[in-house]
Specification:
The chain has 393 residues and is mostly beta strands. The chain is 6% helix and 46% strand.
């Protein structure tokens, strides 16, 4: 982890913690998760950075998930055990004043795409899926493949990450190669921004792919319109040169109009003086935010902390996330498949702790199957390169 990255992570986490107490005292209105009757006090949108037996960490906050409802992008139930590092989530719930712990009420997994690779760039740095470019970097978590360069045309993959400022492109936080079977046939999925809507023909463009939604089950809480971010799915993959007929069309979870605390990441769009901009369809007013001077152009990736007021995110802090900055991940649980300190698994993830700092009483010699650990480090492909190891109480 570089000095620059440590400073960025420390500053961002400090901002979160300092703001959490004040922002979470604000009331919230509007509606909570449909059917629960529960009003969330906070929401976080970002990647899974940590996993334990009882919690999931998003944007530096460890959310207890024992009472949470976990669903996929279409609201279908998922097991908590299916959460993985690098997945892009929306978590609604509450956050303590410390800004480090919370309780999740709803967790929605938000993949950007599930589709077949049609082209692969040199060294695995980019892939083409649904005619859109998936960009990988040194913080992308890989699963189901030895490395990014091994991914090839014809592979079925699931991609997580925020939508890029370029139509349809995705900056991948996670790429998983899927291995469907006759018992678990694939469903193809795409999330993006609607353009070229033609209501008469029941079609629109999502990224660079033309969508035919004439037979789709549509579950939207607002009228379909250009600029809206939606998710579509079908049991059959799209064919080149013809519209893709989908059978499901939905949107992201609606947030309350007023929300005491929101932490989200994405790419700056529609920038105007102030600054005011959009973040994946969410209007942001950063005119009073710490760090607003760094918002100089569209296309910057930013992390924004603030409160929702009448549907607009009033930012208290904005931090520019530099391309390729490593992400610190954490895993807690019992060791499995132990071979050596350089090779064991934790929560299904391959870990190399040969160069880690061990906090007493943890030692390399004490590692073995069933020993419960908490490790922190960065990801290199499908392996977590641990920088710190401690025993888990």
């Amino acid at each position: 982890m570089t000095t620059t990255t440590r400073r960025w992570a420390s500053a961002l986490h400090m901002t979160f913690a300092l703001l959490a107490g004040g922002l979470l005292l604000a009331g919230c209105g509007g509606v909570g998760e449909e059917g629960t009757g529960i009003q969330p006090a906070s929401a976080s949108v970002g990647m899974v950075q940590g996993l334990s037996d009882t919690s999931v960490t998003v944007n530096g906050v460890s959310y207890a998930q024992s009472a949470a409802t976990v669903t996929d992008g279409f609201g279908q139930p998922m097991a908590k055990e299916d959460l993985r590092l690098g997945m892009w989530l929306e978590v609604q719930g509450t956050v303590a004043e410390s800004g480090t712990e919370g309780v999740a009420q709803t967790i929605r997994v938000r993949p950007a795409a599930r589709g077949v690779v049609s082209a692969a760039g040199p060294g695995g740095l980019s892939l083409t899926v649904f005619d859109s470019t998936v960009k990988l970097d040194n913080s992308t978590v890989l699963d189901g493949t030895p490395d990014a360069a091994s991914l090839a045309p014809g592979d079925l993959i699931e991609v997580h990450g925020p939508l890029s400022s370029v139509a349809g492109d995705v900056s991948a936080s996670r790429v998983e190669k899927l291995h469907p079977t006759p018992q678990t046939p694939p469903r193809y999925e795409l999330r993006g921004r609607v353009s070229l809507l033609d209501p008469a023909r029941h079609s629109f463009t999502l990224g660079r792919r033309t969508i035919d939604f004439g037979v789709a089950n549509v579950t939207l809480r607002q009228t379909l319109a250009n600029g809206q971010i939606v998710r579509v799915s079908a049991p059959a993959a799209p064919l080149p040169g013809i519209p893709w007929t989908v059978d499901k069309l939905t949107g992201d979870l609606d947030l309350p109009e007023n929300l005491g605390f929101l932490y989200t990441e994405g790419y700056v769009e529609a920038l105007v003086a102030g600054p005011n901009f959009e973040l994946e369809g969410l209007a942001v007013d950063a005119s009073s935010a710490n760090g607003k001077a760094g918002i100089t152009a569209e296309g910057l990736r930013v992390a924004v902390v603030g409160a929702l007021v009448n549907g607009k995110l009033k930012a208290k802090a904005v931090t520019v996330v530099q391309p390729g900055q490593p992400v610190v991940f954490s895993l807690s649980g019992p060791v499995t498949d132990f071979v050596s300190p350089a090779s064991f698994r934790l929560r299904g993830v391959s870990v190399d702790a040969s160069g880690a700092s061990y906090l007493p009483p943890a030692t390399p010699a004490g590692l073995a199957d069933t020993v419960r650990l908490r490790v922190k480090g960065t990801v290199l492909g499908r392996r977590l390169i641990a920088s710190q190891v401690e025993l888990q109480p």
